[in-house]
Amino acid sequence: MAYNKDTVPEESGKRRKKKKRKVNPIKRTLAVIGTTILSLVLIVIITGSIIAAALTVYVLQFVDQDQVDISLSDLDLDYTTFIYAYDKNDSLVELASISRNADRIPVTIDKIPQHVQDAFVYTEDERFYEHAGVDWKRTFTAFLNEILHFLGGRQGGSTITQQLVKNVTGDDDANWDRKMREIFRAAQLEKYCTKTDILEAYLNYIGFGGSTAGIQAASLKYFGKDVSELSIAEGACLAAIPKNPENYNPFARGIVDSDTDEFKTGLEWNLERQQTVLWLMYKNACISQREYEEACDEKIVFRDPNAKDDVDEGNGIQDWFVDMVIYDVITDFQELYGIEQDEASDKLYNGGYKIYTTVDLDMQKAVEAKYKDYTTFSDTVLADPPESAFICMDYTGNIKAVVGAIGEKAGSNIWNNATRSKRSPGSCIKPITSYGYGLEYDFFTWSTVFINKPLDNEIIDEETGLPRKWPYNYNSKSWDYGGYFTFQALQRSLNTVPAQLIEQETPQEVFEFLQNRFQITTLTAADADIAPLSVGALTEGLTLKELVAAYQAFGNGGKYYRPTSYTQVVDGKGKVVLQHKYMPIQAISSDTAYIMNKLMQTVIEGPNGTGRAAKLVNTPLIGKTGTSQDWHDLSFVGCTPDYVSGVWYGYSTPKQIPTGTYYSSSQVWKNVFGDIAEAEEGKTFPENNEVQELYYCTQTGKLAGARCPTGSVGYYKKTFVPEMCTEDHSKKKDEGQS
């Protein structure tokens, strides 16, 4: 059938012609917006995924870096060290507190009241007990504020744990890398440490203005009381300080308030912030409403910032005994830990130790007063006076008093002539060498006769360059060639007799006796000779401390105890790190010690004794004087029933002492120590049953026989007594042979 357009139905024509629709404008707008939002979401998702991936890599980098353990033991805390003594009532007295970087006193958490702990926790780290090292809410808020500044200033995001981490590691760079390391390390620390451990470390670490650090030191500084005694209001005052320690501590000068342009003192800032601390404590239900109101109303009494401690001399200078203790502990730390002096010193000053000393406080004070008075040494004011030193100890080596120089002490930790100067002891060496050795090994007795003559060998005189005989006696260059008993030779301090003895006893044997029995540490190989051992002409000399310690044996039955200025050193955790051990060496037998005691008594009591000026009225005294070559050093060591003590004087750069205007060494000793020694009235030296009192013949030195018209008492070992004198002295007298 042929196509005829006229026969096409009407509907078919309509299909060929497209009808235009109208679109709702609202729908179109919504569609555009939806498409845009979807695109943005996709962009954010994609970008976020990229950032998340990058952050994951970044974070994993720090996770890898922080496999090293973080330990609170690595926290570098500097604690104040305290030095103590016991007074005559056996009460503990603080002698000194020493520190180098911070005044900090260690305290365990159980000694810190709960309200004090809470004051810091709810002020510094409100969610401390809830987070695992990082307060994410606080961190995120601080992060946003860093960008948007909506809180009006920089906000801290670090928790107490993070603050500790920063100080354990020393990592305090001001960048995001450091912050990320800190976050992961804080989380790691909380895996191995309890909240209690972390809070204890924090409260011992935190600064409170100036050099004061740690809650205990702050409590003592601002309130004069132990941390355990702090009230709620006082604890809040301390918790107010860490926000700005140099300006918010009660003793600070203060700063201008930027909001009001008003100047506020540190006390005003502190009390204002204290109210905030109290509110935070109340808000977190760690104090009741009544406690809160009472604490807000409490009148805080602060310690006078200008008050001086009882141990303060007024000029901030330590006394001689404290100097000695510090030096001794540093020396012992070097040996104990195998470290150098500087490191040992830092360890002592920053270690928070408690040192318990042996000092007699009254004696130390009295002796120091004597050394500040020049009339103790001379009745003439000298333009160039010599120096002097004194030391005293008991018979177990406990040092009781020490002074290292004449006059007002020039500073702390200065040179001490009693403990550090090596000088010639002169004749003071004789009891611990020639006489001590000879009696111990029975080379002579009380009444052995010695001829006062020089040795056969000659020496070259330094002044003339010519040969001369040796040795001279201390007060003469001639000899009378007479015979002297042992006690007379010691009493007169003859040099000839000890020289003969050392030659007979052999120098090397006596050298080892001195070194091992009396623990003299300053000897050299050259000192194993006659001159050093008989008249004290040692290569380096020895310290007064060593010399006096050796004389212990003559008052305690022959024992030597190592001298000490302290009994023990305790660390901040209560562990004893140094303990003095009282381990005696039997330097000489008890019978030798007893006879030497009696021999040295003649130095004080005898008509020709060189130490007569030291004689006491009420107390037994034995001793020995010493004069070095050319009168460069004068010494005296004296023993009473309770104490052994010694004095030295001479010039720092050796030269002759003007003895005509300076008192003798024995007189100086009495001026310094006589009053103290006299207080020992009624005491005596120990007896010895192995020694006999026997009469000897005053002409032969043998035991007095029936035909000896005169005799005198001597002291002899039961195992070694002279033979009996059998001569008929009356017949010789009749023949004119006396």
Task: Give the gist of this structure.
By secondary structure, the chain is of the alpha+beta class.
Outline the structure in words.
- The chain is α+β, with helices and mostly antiparallel strands.
- Among the domains are: 26-65; 74-297, Orthogonal Bundle (Penicillin binding protein transpeptidase fold); 315-421 and 545-587 and 642-688, 3-Layer(aba) Sandwich (Beta-lactamase), CATH 3.40.710; 691-734, no CATH class.
- The chain is 38% helix and 13% strand.
- It is built from 24 helices and 20 strands.
- The strands form seven sheets. A five-stranded mixed beta sheet has the order 2-1-5-13-14. The protein has a five-stranded antiparallel beta sheet with strand order 7-6-18-17-16, with helices on both faces.
- A hairpin with a 6-residue loop joins β9 and β10.
- α5 (160-169) crosses α7.
- The chain is elongated, with a radius of gyration of 43 Å.
Number of strands: 20
Shape: elongated
CATH homologous superfamily of the domain at 74-297 - what is it? Biosynthetic peptidoglycan transglycosylase-like
Classification by helices and strands: alpha+beta
Helicity level, as a percent range? 25-40%
Compute the number of helices.
24
Name the CATH class of the domain at 74-297. Mainly Alpha
Radius of gyration: 43 Å
The CATH architecture of the domain at 74-297 is Orthogonal Bundle
Stated plainly, the CATH topology of the domain at 74-297 is called Penicillin binding protein transpeptidase fold
Percentage of β-strand residues: 5-15%
Unreliable spans are 1-16, 52-60, 62-68, 150-155, 309-314, 734-738
Main sheet specs: 5 strands, mixed
Within the largest sheet, what's the order of strands? 2-1-5-13-14
N- to C-terminal distance: 193 Å
Average pLDDT works out at: 85
